[in-house]
Amino acid sequence: MKTDEVLSILEKHEEDHSGLISILEDIQSKYSYLPAEALKLVAEQTGRSLVDIYGVATFYKSFSLKPRGKHLCSVCVGTACHVRGAPLIAEEFQRQLNVKASETTPDKEFTLEKVNCLGACAIGPIVVMDGHYFSNVNSPQVNQIIKKTKAGLDDAEIKEDRRVYLLDVSCPRCNHSLMDPSRHLDGSPSIRVTVSTEGEHGWLRLSSLYGSFTVESEFGLRTDTIEDFFCPHCHAELKGASQCPLCRAPMVSMIVRAGGVVQICSRRGCKGHMLDIDGSGL
Amino acid sequence: MITLTINGLEVSVEEGSTLLEAAQFYGFPIPTLCHMEGLTPYGACRLCVVEIGEGPKAKLVSSCTYPAQEGLKVRTASSRVLKARKMILELLLASCPQSKVIQDLASAHQIRQQRFRQEHEDCILCGLCVRMCKEQMVAQAIGFRGRGEKRSIGTPFDIKSEQCRLCGGCIYVCPACQLRCTFTEPDKAICGGCANLSPPCVEKEPFDDMMCYMQPCVACEIKKD
Predict the structure, then answer these.
(1) How far is CA B120 from CA A109, A119, B67, B185, in A?
(2) Which residue among A55, A117, A121, B89 sits deepest, i.e. has the most Cβ atoms within 10 Å of its Cβ?
(3) Domain check: are B7 and B81 in the same one?
């Protein structure tokens, strides 16, 4: 854990230090758990007592004080899933991963977690792997789910998932297409824009598949930097009107040919995005 | 001043006082566990229930947190109140049978046996020690952790807190924790070992100059065997 990383998270929440839960959420999303030193630092900086913060961190099940694995596997054992055989699935996961519930595998790959209800009882039994929902799970599927997760869920889904579809976008000022057929990402033409950070200009290519977060950049893969986006044709800044719902960075907006506006977060690595079909949010 | 009726007697109390304060001021006894003067009311033990209102609208409230209202009709010892109080005491007795305070209260309410599965907790989660630590000792060394069945009181990470001055205040106010003293695990100690005023454990290392509020000190008794 680095002190300055936690301090920068705290700085982000400076105006509302009362938002303890959102501070802890940010720390947890950074380290996948809440390190003891980080909690002490939060106590120091926000002027709360450590015991209050510890109380909050132990009260909510989504916070973990122990390091978690790379993949979080939540098996729903709520009433509806239970009657459809969720205990068997939980048992199968425990057997295949060779850990007990709320434990992490020794290779730090998987953390198994039993949860009580995910609010999707109609499609139970449900297993959630890193935010990807698997519905109507039965025991033979457990092995597949684990394999799929190891292979990378984000890659695997782009080809099969029907929620992923192609967007053809253009600049909101000059209406020139931003599509770049010369370079393909995820098997379809990429979106090319110009970005600048700290006085450097360069190109950035985004996957045109809505739901895919594949990015290519002249600067290589950087995370956590907010970049200014420009149209490569008219050099207008592609600035959106709103803030990212996830990290509050400014959004970048582009016109969708089929109608509407798509907005993405200008922070590299952040997955915040919005698709506005009728363009009323512009 | 607010005028209200307690057990049929019209009384007047200052604005802002609770039903418990009003009743105690006029000499109506209400048993309490988690209430202490100088600490904010918490309403955890529910032992101070009283009945307010009339007819079908009558309800039970905890008097230590309920503010006195104009014209309120309060009954501190109706059959409904006594029944509820007995039930609460039985439940407390089921979780912390070794507490002298709870035993005495139960005996005063003519409880000879309790109907629930016997457990042997050393805490009723009344929060007295937490409030004592925060409000009187201004330390905030201990607090509530976890939730539901796993809720417990202790220091963060279960290690000795930097805020703790080993004042023993938490043990002094505790109605249940004759076993809270963690003599066998000094690292986790909230109290800093025993602090008895007439200590049976003075001669024993490693707390040779500590004092113990417990009489007899349970941890020392365990150690003796």
Answers:
(1) 40, 37, 35, 19
(2) B89
(3) yes
